[in-house]
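wait is this the right file?? whatever heres the structure
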């Protein structure tokens, strides 16, 4: 199949979280399954410098842009995946991150930036970008690509569209002035279409118009149809539930494999687990913690946002300190969480280590050097860190939600007896419930045989992309054989002319 994969980040070109891991590895897995998949991203400076064999292939004039957009073509590093970068310097050539400036504030022109990106993706999708190639399906990811299914919905000869929700909490909401400046069809400002509580919602473009919607774990696909997880969109998702499913993310074991990982102090496998301790020592050194015989080391890496539940860990610090353990945290995010963690590490320099920042090498070392990985998320569409920690022999402690529930099986008596236990799971969003799970984990840690069984169950589990990529492929085929006709398109003649003008 010819597939266009659109994303606002992809490892190793640019990354802020798990979306980049997925966009950097699912296309490769599809390529290995002999599909013609091409990846398209905005041309951020980092992406331009890391892409392989980049050259200018065409200039495309898009509605809403002052100058033509340049399409650069190259390769995703180290792969056979063809890459397009949408080069519009006024939108993407700037320091800072893909969504935030260097001070951590949203770029004020994000609506214009990702509308332009979506228009460029749509132009490629319609074979209007001078590439001489048309995909049969466009795979859109998160709100930054949300306008694509809406822009394509009423086009004749359009490809099928899949919209993947990696995180429903980020919706791409903008005010009326932004909506007006984007020159989108005025009738999109209605609650059946892209308006949401008096704002323009990019994600609704995907949720309303895509031929199919999926998310990154079966549990999250169920959860988002409820008020507790639906972020106000549960009604719409219930309405579309016949075309909504969940596929668990895979992991790229070429990047995340303790047997070959060049970012570790020492590589190891399930047969040489004793070598894992060299990573623990290196990790303690990196965080300035002393070695403490018999103290397990608990680790966390991630975005410091409410979703991840680190406030529960912070609340527990006085309790944790009483226990014979150490804790290391690597992350960036909400200033109050960063500050609370910094304070804790200053207060307890022998037991708590904190690094505020983004550090890929340290993230790998943390997965390998910790004894337990903490992930007490309030919600978690899939979560990759707990899957990495399984492979690194670092049993995770997780809340039973979303992808955490789908990947971690609790060390209760039945699972231990069956040999399927690989971590610790708790239910309630509360510090007490987390503490109870930590205490159970500490109990197991002192029983070498039990611990070894947990580690090997996690390390031998297979969460590679092979199976999930096959599931995606089956879904792509199903969608492209059976696209929907959105009610808006019944007045196709009129709309086509209108949509033609905005592409
Ligand atoms: P999310 O996408 O919600 O952030 P995931 O668990 O799916 O959560 O993926 C997070 C990815 O981002 C992992 O690869 C993780 O190692 C990486 N990551 C997050 N924060 C940092 C950080 N501060 N330094 C290095 N890597 C990070
Ligand atoms: C999001 C989610 C995370 C998921 C990732 C990749 O950022 O928060 O749970 O693993 O996307 O799909």
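ok assuming it is, sequence goes like this
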């Amino acid at each position: 199949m010819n597939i266009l994969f659109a994303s606002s980040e992809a490892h190793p070109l640019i990354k802020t979280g798990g979306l980049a891991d997925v966009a950097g590895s699912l296309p490769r897995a599809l390529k290995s399954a002999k599909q013609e998949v091409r990846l398209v991203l905005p041309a951020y400076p980092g992406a331009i410098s890391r892409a392989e064999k980049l050259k200018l292939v065409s200039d495309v004039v898009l509605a809403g842009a002052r100058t033509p957009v340049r399409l650069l073509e190259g390769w995703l590093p180290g792969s056979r995946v063809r890459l397009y970068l949408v080069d519009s310097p006024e939108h993407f050539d700037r320091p800072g991150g893909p969504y935030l400036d260097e001070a951590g504030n949203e770029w004020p022109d994000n609506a214009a930036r990702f509308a332009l990106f979506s228009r460029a993706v749509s132009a490629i999708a319609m074979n209007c970008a001078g590439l001489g190639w048309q995909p049969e399906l466009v795979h859109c990811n998160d709100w930054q690509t949300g306008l694509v299914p809406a822009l394509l919905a009423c086009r004749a000869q359009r490809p099928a569209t899949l919209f993947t929700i990696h995180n429903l909490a980020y919706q791409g909401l903008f005010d009326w002035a932004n909506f007006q400046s984007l020159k989108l069809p005025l009738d999109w400002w209605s609650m059946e279409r892209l308006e949401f509580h008096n704002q323009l919602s990019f994600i609704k473009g995907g949720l309303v118009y895509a031929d199919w919607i999926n998310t990154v774990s079966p549990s999250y696909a169920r959860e988002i149809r409820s008020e507790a997880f639906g972020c106000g969109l549960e009604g719409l998702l219930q309405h579309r539930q016949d075309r909504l499913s969940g596929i668990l993310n895979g992991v790229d074991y070429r990047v995340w494999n303790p047997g070959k990982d060049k970012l570790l102090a020492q590589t190891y496998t399930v047969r040489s687990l004793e070598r894992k301790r060299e990573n623990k020592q290196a990790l303690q050194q990196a965080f300035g913690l002393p070695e403490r015989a018999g103290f397990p080391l608990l680790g966390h890496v991630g975005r410091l946002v409410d979703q991840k539940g680190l406030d529960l860990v912070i609340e527990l610090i006085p309790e944790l300190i009483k226990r014979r353990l150490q804790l290391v945290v690597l992350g960036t995010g909400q200033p109050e969480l960063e500050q609370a963690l910094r304070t804790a590490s200053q207060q307890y320099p022998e037991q708590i280590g904190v690094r505020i920042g983004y550090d890929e090498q340290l993230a790998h070392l943390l997965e390998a050097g910790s004894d337990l990985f903490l992930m007490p998320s309030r919600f978690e569409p899939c979560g990759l860190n707990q899957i990495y920690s399984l492979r690194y022999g670092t049993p995770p402690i997780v809340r039973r939600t979303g992808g955490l529930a789908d990947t971690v099986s609790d060390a209760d008596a039945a699972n231990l007896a069956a040999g399927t236990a690989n971590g610790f799971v708790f239910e309630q969003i509360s510090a007490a419930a987390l503490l109870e799970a930590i205490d159970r984990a500490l109990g197991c840690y002192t029983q070498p045989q039990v611990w070894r069984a947990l580690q090997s169950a996690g390390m031998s589990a297979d969460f590679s992309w092979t199976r999930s990529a096959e599931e995606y492929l089956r879904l792509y085929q199903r969608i492209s054989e059976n696209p929907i006709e959105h009610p808006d398109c019944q007045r196709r003649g009129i709309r086509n002319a209108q949509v033609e003008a905005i592409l």
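Residues 17-19, 21, 301-303, 330-332, 358-360, 363, 382-385 surround adenosine-5'-diphosphate (ligand 1) (CB under 6 Å). so i think its the right one actually
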